[in-house]
């Protein structure tokens, strides 16, 4: 029993994994960070100017001196090239702008939803137009739309009719969306995915401007109604 308790105690101590530390290179920099300035330890580099101009192959000492004179950083952008490619840039500004773009991309990705609209193969014209209106509204709002045809009974043996209906819808809403996934049949359903032509952020900004313009027009009309008819003539 004593030995069992010792083993259990050892398991509790050693079974807990230590916290992971960020991997670093021998110079102490994170592996996913490029080498900059004095950490670039090669005799020669292919130098690119701050505006993308090709300077050519120079000694690392000369590249570092040019960076210092221009008050910029020397950043290794292609370490596996022979010789490595380096660029003169403001590295702090570069990292900030990259972080802003990454946040914007994540926000747009998170805000984009996939809506779903379901059709029956034998849908009447009124229901078709109503559902198409919803699809257009979703696309104008910057969301993707998965359009699904649900087959009943023997309808499964004629998938071409479902494909024809889906492509008809895609053609009628092409002003607002584009086909991202072609019609694909899975069991009793056939679906395609429509992607918006405008990003979620752009669609929201347009909707905001439209609301402001509509509100301004309503305010102007209300003020005009309140103004006495004789006052305009005076």
Question: What's the gist of this structure?
Answer:
The chain is an alpha/beta fold and 234 residues long. Helices cover 45% and strands 23% of the residues.
Core attributes:
Translation Initiation Factor IF3, 8 strands, 4-stranded mixed β-sheet, 234 residues, 7 helices, alpha/beta, Ubiquitin-like (UB roll), flat
The level of helicity is: 40-55%
Following the backbone from N to C, one meets helices and strands in this order, namely: HEEHEEHEHEHEEHH
Q: Briefly note the CATH topology name of the domain at 112-200.
A: Translation Initiation Factor IF3
Spatial order of strands in the largest sheet = 2-1-4-3
Alpha-beta content class: alpha/beta
| Shape designation | flat
CATH superfamily descriptor of the domain at 112-200: Translation initiation factor 3 (IF-3), C-terminal domain
Overall mean pLDDT: 80
Which parts are unreliable, with pLDDT below 50 for 5 consecutive residues or more? 1-31
For the report, how would you describe the main beta sheet? 4 strands, mixed
CATH top-level class of the domain at 112-200 = Alpha Beta
Could you give the count of β-strands? 8
* C-alpha end-to-end distance: 107 Å
Count of alpha and pi helical runs: 7
| CATH architectural type of the domain at 112-200 | 2-Layer Sandwich
Report the C-alpha radius of gyration, rounded: 31 Å
Strand share of the residues? 15-25%
